[in-house]
């Protein structure tokens, strides 16, 4: 259902855009055609000279929107390559179709949980419809930049601080959808939006650092307590095993002597057999 709604909304926007363009590319009228015919005759009569003013070239990544007596001549932009214009009646505007990127200046934004943060980002967009980008907005590039700043404030104003710090991908996607929908009538396609940096106030940074340190200390104490508990359980099991087997106690005694003898100390130990000690231990 969401896909169908999006397709219908895009279709409606496309139809409204075509209707607007068709209104702009209406008939020139009787007087307009007379002027165009006179301009064409003048162009033919002075052909060797006017060829330099009539012949235009646009690059592969450019398109030309031609205006004839103030009206767009066709629903499709010209280019790439060579095209002709009438010097007296025609004018054209070159539109660059390459992807353009710009930085969103750092914005002081109040989040949903009343924390002031400074956020900046970057936006990548391109012109998808040259005619709409010329006829429907004064400056598509500048308008997109301003709209990106306001969209960033609106989107982050509905997020908590934790969401701003952890869900950057979701915020970028929301901004891209909002920008793309708003700039569709301008012939602009927003390809990507990225959040570059989130700066917190100094007091908030200190508070978060103290909270993180306290959480780490609590985890360290829990881990140490679990280690002590596991060690005590292991010692209990070892004592039960040694109690059941006297030979195990003798081996443990010899191992301890070996460990002490390996160290550099001035203490000399004369071990006694455990059988002799056991006689006194029973008494």
List the helices and strands and how they pair.
Blueprint (H helix, E strand, L loop, with lengths): L1 H23 L4 H17 L1 H8 E4 L3 E7 L2 E2 L8 E4 L5 E7 L3 E11 L5 E12 L2 H6 L4 H17 L4 H6 L1 H15 L5 E12 L2 H43 L1 H17 L11 H9 L1
Antiparallel strand pairs: 1-4, 2-3, 2-5, 6-7, 7-8
Which key phrases capture this entry?
single chain, 283 residues, alpha+beta, Tetrahydropterin Synthase, Chain A, 3 domains, 3-stranded antiparallel beta sheet, 10 helices, 57% helix
Mean pLDDT: 78
Assembly annotation: single chain
By CATH, the topology of the largest domain is Tetrahydropterin Synthase, Chain A
Number of domains: 3
> How are helices and strands ordered from N to C?
HHHEEEEEEEHHHHEHHH
Most strands sheet: 3 strands, antiparallel
What would you call the shape? rod-shaped
- In spatial order, strands of the major sheet run 3-2-5
The name of the CATH architecture of the largest domain is: 2-Layer Sandwich
Helix/strand-derived class?
A: alpha+beta
What CATH first level of the largest domain would be assigned? Alpha Beta
Over all CA atoms, what is the radius of gyration? 40 Å
Number of strands: 8
Helix content: 55-70%
Number of helices: 10
Strand content: 15-25%
> Which regions contain 5 or more consecutive residues with pLDDT less than 50?
none
**CATH superfamily placement of the largest domain:** Band 7 domain
| Amino-to-carboxy terminus distance | 90 Å
